[in-house]
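Researcher: We plan to redesign the surface later, but first we want a full-length starting point. Tokens attached.
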């Protein structure tokens, strides 16, 4: 019985990964297809990557998406970390239930509702839609994901280290940056990467809040796919996959090295 259960688990895992990653692998392979037809292999070629350099609309949309994703991830990480600290460290305070509800609501709310509500807000305050409205919209929903990730890291955090630093005369501000932040940095980095990825991937909310000159890459790809998939879309998608993969791996390596270095320092301090 146990043997058959193990085979079932392995088969389910293999099928799940195949369902997720085989389409991505096919997209990458066909981005090097020499044929103009995306489903017919015509030989290996990089012609569509060179053609992509001449597609000003796709390049402009990619630049907009990268800027929005980076700034949204930075601001979301700061605000999300502050929200997580408020929920974990300050216990029960007046308005905590409302505050936590506002944090978790965008996680379960349909993106159509979020995009429409933000659109109505920008119209009501007479805020011209464009780059900054898309940025504000992405900060709004990315911040909630960062707060959840950092909160999970703070729950398992040993507060005795902070208390020791405070007893030794360290100020709360200095304690946070010297003790708390380095220890929760893996969670903060994970929140940043998640916010960056969510912002790059978003289509629905950006469609509601965008304006002239602020077309994101997902919006540009979607508008072109409606008239048929072209090899250039495969090429730009492959570049996007590569960029995200490099960012995630780099952040993971840096976080792992920092964690190992802190562990070595703690062991040295104990034995010293």
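Model: Full-length starting sequence:
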């Amino acid at each position: 019985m146990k043997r058959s259960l193990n085979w079932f688990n392995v088969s389910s895992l293999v099928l799940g990964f195949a369902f997720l990653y085989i389409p991505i692998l096919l997209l990458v392979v066909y981005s090097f297809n020499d044929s103009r037809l995306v489903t017919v292999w015509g030989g290996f070629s990089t012609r569509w990557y060179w053609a992509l350099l001449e597609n000003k609309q796709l390049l402009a949309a990619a630049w907009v998406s990268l800027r929005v994703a980076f700034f949204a991830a930075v601001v979301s990480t700061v605000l999300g970390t502050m929200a997580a600290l408020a929920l974990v460290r300050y216990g029960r305070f007046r308005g905590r239930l409302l505050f936590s509800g506002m944090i978790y609501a965008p996680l379960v709310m349909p993106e159509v509702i979020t995009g429409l509500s933000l659109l109505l807000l920008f119209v009501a305050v007479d805020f011209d839609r464009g780059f900054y409205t898309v940025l504000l919209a992405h900060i709004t929903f990315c911040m909630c994901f960062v707060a959840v990730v950092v909160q999970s890291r703070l729950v398992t955090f040993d507060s005795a280290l902070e208390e020791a630093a405070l007893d030794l005369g360290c100020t709360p501000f200095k304690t946070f940056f010297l003790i708390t932040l380095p220890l929760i940095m893996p969670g903060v980095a994970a929140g940043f990467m998640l916010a960056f990825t969510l912002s790059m991937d978003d289509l629905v909310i950006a469609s509601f809040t965008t304006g002239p000159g602020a077309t994101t890459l997902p919006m540009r790809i979607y508008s072109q796919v409606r008239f048929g998939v072209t090899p250039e879309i495969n090429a730009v998608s492959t570049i996007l996959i590569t960029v995200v993969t490099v960012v995630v791996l780099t952040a993971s390596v840096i976080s792992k090295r920092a964690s190992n270095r802190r562990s070595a320092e703690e062991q040295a301090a104990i034995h010293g």
